[in-house]
Amino acid sequence: MSTLSPNSTEYNIKISDEHEAFRKIVREFAEKELAPKAQKIDKENRMDMDLVRKAAKLGLFGVPFPEEYGGGGGDDLSLVLATEEIARFSAAFSSVVGANYLVSTPIALFGNEEQKRRYLTPIARGEKLAAHAMTEPGAGSDVAGISTTAEKKGGKYVINGKKMFITNGDKADIFLVFARTSAAETEKRHRGVTAFLVEKGTPGLNVGNVIDVIGLRGDQPVEIVLDNLEVPEENIVGEVGRGVNVALTTYDHGRIGVAAQGTGLAQAALEAALKYATQRQTFGNYLLSYQQVQFKIAEMTIAVHTARLLTYWGATLTKTGKDFIKASSIAKIVSTEAAEKNAHAAMMIMGAYGVSVDMQVERILRDSQIIKTYEGTNDIQRLTIMKEVAKEMGITSKPQIV
Ligand SMILES: Cc1cc2nc3c(=O)[nH]c(=O)nc-3n(C[C@H](O)[C@H](O)[C@H](O)COP(=O)(O)OP(=O)(O)OC[C@H]3O[C@@H](n4cnc5c(N)ncnc54)[C@H](O)[C@@H]3O)c2cc1C
What we know:
By secondary structure, the chain is an alpha+beta fold. The chain has three domains: about 10-130, Acyl-CoA dehydrogenase/oxidase, N-terminal domain (Butyryl-Coa Dehydrogenase, subunit A, domain 1), CATH 1.10.540.10; about 130-240, Beta Barrel (Butyryl-CoA Dehydrogenase, subunit A, domain 2), CATH 2.40.110.10; about 245-395, Butyryl-CoA Dehydrogenase, subunit A, domain 3 (Up-down Bundle). It contains twelve helices and ten strands. Strands 1-4-5-8 form a four-stranded mixed beta sheet. Strands 2-3-7-6 form a four-stranded antiparallel beta sheet, with no helix packed on it. Helix 6 runs antiparallel to helix 10 (about 360-375) and helix 8 runs antiparallel to helix 11 (about 380-390). The protein is globular, with a radius of gyration of 21 Å. The two termini are about 20 Å apart. The protein binds flavin-adenine dinucleotide.
């Protein structure tokens, strides 16, 4: 998808009857089963694992993967449709599900046959949960800056370090751990990181403190401490030293899922505001009769549709296998900021009830802060967009673009 001279075909979004049928199934689950429990999950800050198991039975953990590996044989578009429906009621629930894709996707893209059978298949079926362990106390956006080490000893690697903010870290059976297999100075820094699959219960893999964050309550991230953790070399995903490539390719796909979370949250805020504005009266008139409220609702509607179209577009482009990096960054920024903007507008429309924790709109505002941050902050997405545009223009010299 070219920035300077795009073709109209680059904006194709093809939604099939199968896509819509799948959406209906997920919507029914979300409305009937998740909606009544969403507020409790947030208030008690505890995930409903029975419901997670039900979501697994619906096929929500393996949507785009081939059936031979436990998947549903769908695509990224099916996955974003499902994610949007789930996030409309609980972004925390969609995050518990979504974080698995940060492990299953790299195995599907970079793993060997044995890894696909042994690890991808149970994750895709929702039989085992997974966690992606990249972020550290000293490195988040700069993934090549991680300092966890993996030292080769015979046919094994010994891993030492600490990971922070790991979603599902307290629930996972399978971890994808990133560590340095060569020092940052010895090669190009992004070439020295490797991705390892580690099973829960392996000595040296320790779950640390829960990190209390303002949003996605019910799905709080944790610390993971790696203390002389021994991993056989056959558990390396992709090539030794190419872990940054594995991670960044995973995030290119994953952030379309975050865009879908933003779309679902933005939709939820719009629905809450509309419902309130058609029921609440002041000075003898419904709130919706005031032009000031109508303009806010119109802006919220624009935000939702823009977010949704860009999310579907990014998910459609992943099928072509090229040019979706910029699209997924654009979708992530627009959708997560739509969620924040709509939550804020809904709060204003709803007055004191908007800031009441019982009305669930303040939850959308809190959740929006997290989705703007994880899988690459929105400013990091802006850098990605600029790098892609520069590439299209043939500009390669760093000082001009970063
Ligand atoms: C709830 C939650 C769940 C998470 N789950 C996971 C998980 O499962 N696995 C995992 O590995 N990580 C996870 N993370 C970590 C998340 O991916 C990182 O927090 C995120 O990538 C940002 O890293 P950081 O917090 O270290 O910020 P930093 O990298 O320190 O950045 C701080 C600020 O500086 C800006 N900045 C940084 N570099 C630049 C630059 N070059 N130009 C302009 N601005 C810049 C950033 O945009 C940001 O605003 C999670 C985080 C949260 C909050």
